[in-house]
Specification:
By secondary structure, the chain is α/β, with parallel strands linked by helices. The protein folds into three domains: about 110 residues, no CATH class; about 160 residues, Reverse transcriptase/Diguanylate cyclase domain (Alpha-Beta Plaits), CATH 3.30.70.270; about 210 residues, Alpha-Beta Barrel (TIM Barrel), CATH 3.20.20.450. It is about 60% helix and about 15% strand. It is built from 20 helices and 17 strands. Helix 6 crosses helix 7. The N and C termini lie far apart (about 90 Å). The chain binds ligand C2E and magnesium ion (2 copies).
Length: about 525
């Protein structure tokens, strides 16, 4: 037992100290007795010593000292040893409790959503897998429901990110109130929640749960003196009827939720009819995974024209998917899908590798062109990204300043602290950071100052109509002013005609991008385009 061992160790130490005291006392007795005998008899004899001991009462007192030291030392030693031992045990216990609490906290953070404290996607996946396992053994069924708030983006944009978060927290509390202890409510991310409902006997049971959820959302939500009616679309898939594993159930519940949203139905249970109605969505998810291995993705490059230099020194890399049946697909058709399925991490890695390889090829041919790459929310939460980028830059011998990463305000706001840390590490490499689609997110100017950005890109929705819409022009002008006062470069995207270009130049916009300069083109076409342009 560690405690008993600590005590006897400390006691032995104290005993050793008291033995020294006893030793000193014995020496004192011998010296004192010898001196007394010498002074009484004028010499040193055994009889003299004996007589000194017999007759001198001060020596009697001295004789008691070794015993006193021994007894006192033993006592104090024991008390001290027990006290110290108990202290050590207490502290060890406390340390153990602290370590356990920290382990628990880390575990909790890994499996729970920070905003609502609900289980996250990882924990839900685990719980559904276990529930399927049990249902297979006992012959039961279960339902997986996916809920997505209608028009949440609008709410977020008009009331701000802070209120969007508040709404999600309120919603989480209400939703939690409708499920049984044995069921699970999780937040999948953004405005998406999922329910695992165990032991469902029939479709009617699932309908009942959906009605209860909708009822819980009936009462308006209150945000800063506003009352807000919030609706959601819910889709459900049932085990074993629709799918036998977690991923299939998730995908099918998602398909059902989309159907509910499109038809404004509120709630839809999956049926194979839906897959036929949206076969593309469902099969695309599977095909996108293979597209990466089959090398079906293509990079296109769109020039960014520098007004001051009157030349193109930079391009934006835009991905396309050369689909075997659907032809060349635009990013809007598959990037959101990749973001939902988590495939975006692999896709972004592919894009970064391809773009840096291309950049180094162009450099070898004397074409010094900086490239910008678009990143998604999940990329900004990946702590490995800075190291990956550093590695790729070194591998392709591309100077860091020749790479620009375009991020959106929305993507930073998913987890501002974490994104900021990752962005700072990337900026530390010398890579430039640009804020894309500026003006469409819930921009926090205070936050913008904290970010290591070098460039703002005014969203094309403002630029495209700025000549006809004074409101848009005011926004463009204000953004140019803001960028200037913060010492940032400013890019206008979506420049479609000469009149817009001239107006932007007179407003002092440094960089222009849009169909008027060039549409995005394949890598092979760019050198010729560039040299033709330089020759003009
Ligand atoms: P973005 O980063 O804002 O890219 C600019 C988009 O505007 C591109 O659309 C471009 O083709 C289009 N555009 C450029 N000039 C004009 C113009 O004058 N008029 C009009 N109407 N449009 C113009 P694209 O290529 O379809 O890309 C759409 C979005 O998809 C991009 O918006 C970006 O957010 C995303 N995206 C593209 N490639 C990637 C990628 O490799 N990774 C990630 N994560 N996202 C990407
Ligand atoms: Mg972009
Ligand atoms: Mg943009």
């Amino acid at each position: 037992m560690p405690f008993a061992r600590d005590v006897s160790f400390l006691k032995a130490k104290a005993t050793r100290q008291s033995m020294v005291g006893v030793g000193i006392a014995v020496v004192a007795i011998v010296v004192a007795t010898t001196m007394v005998a010498y002074f009484q008899t004028g010499g040193l004899t055994l009889a003299g010593v004996a007589s000194a001991q017999r007759t001198n009462s001060a020596l009697w007192f001295l004789d008691l000292l070794p015993f006193a030291f021994a007894v006192w030392g033993q006592h104090v030693g024991s008390v001290m040893a027990y006290e110290a031992g108990a202290m050590i045990t207490d502290q060890t216990q406390e340390l153990r409790t602290q370590a356990l609490a920290m382990e628990f906290k880390a575990q909790h953070e890994m499996t729970h959503d920070a905003l609502t404290d609900l289980p996250n996607r990882i924990l839900l996946h685990d719980r559904v897998a276990q529930a399927i396992h049990r249902a297979k053994r006992d012959g039961g069924s279960l339902a997986l429901l996916v809920l997505d708030v209608d028009r949440f983006k609008e709410i977020n944009e008009s009331l701000g990110h802070f209120n969007g978060d508040r709404l999600l927290r309120q919603l989480a509390v209400r939703l939690k109130g409708v499920i049984r202890e044995s069921d699970t409510l999780a937040r999948l991310g953004g405005d998406e929640f999922a329910f695992l409902i165990q032991k469902v006997a029939s479709d009617a049971d699932v309908h009942k749960v959906a009605r209860t959820i909708q009822k819980a959302m009936d009462a308006p939500f209150s945000l800063e003196k506003l009352t807000l009616d919030v609706r959601a679309s819910i889709g459900a898939a049932i085990f074993p009827e629709h799918g036998q594993d977690v991923d299939t159930l998730m995908q099918l519940a998602d398909v059902a939720m989309y159907a509910a949203k499109q038809d404004n139905q509120g709630f839809v249970i999956y049926s194979s009819r839906l897959s036929m109605a949206s076969p593309q969505r469902l099969t695309l998810m599977g095909e996108l995974r293979q597209a990466l291995d089959r090398d079906e993705l293509r990079m296109y490059y769109q020039p960014k024209f520098d007004n001051h230099l009157s030349r193109v020194t930079e391009v934006e890399a835009l991905v396309r998917w050369q689909h075997p049946r659907h032809g060349l697909m635009q990013p809007a058709e598959f990037i959101p899908l990749a973001e939902r399925t988590g495939l975006i991490k692999q896709l972004s890695l592919w894009v970064l590798k391809t773009v840096l390889r291309q950049s180094s090829l162009w450099r070898e041919h004397g074409l010094e062109i900086a490239v910008s790459v678009n990143l998604s929310t999940q990329d900004l939460l990946d702590p490995e990204l800075p190291d990956i980028i550093a590695g790729l830059l070194a591998q392709h011998s591309v100077p860091a300043k020749q790479l620009v990463l375009e991020i959106t305000e929305t993507s930073i706001m998913a987890d501002p602290d974490r994104s900021l840390e990752i962005l700072n590490r990337i900026a530390g490499l010398g890579v430039r950071i640009s804020i894309d689609d500026f003006g469409t997110g819930y921009s926090s100017l205070a936050y913008l100052r904290k970010l290591p950005v070098t460039e703002i890109k005014i969203d094309r929705s403002f630029v495209m109509e700025m000549l006809d819409n004074p409101g848009d022009e005011a926004i463009v002008q204000a953004t140019i002013g803001l960028a200037r006062s913060l010492g940032l470069a400013v890019v206008a995207e979506g420049v479609e005609n000469d009149a817009t270009m001239v107006r932007l130049q007179s407003l002092g916009c440094n960089i222009l991008q849009g169909y008027h300069i060039s549409r995005p083109m394949a890598a092979n076409d760019f050198p010729r385009w560039h040299s033709d342009r330089e020759a003009k």
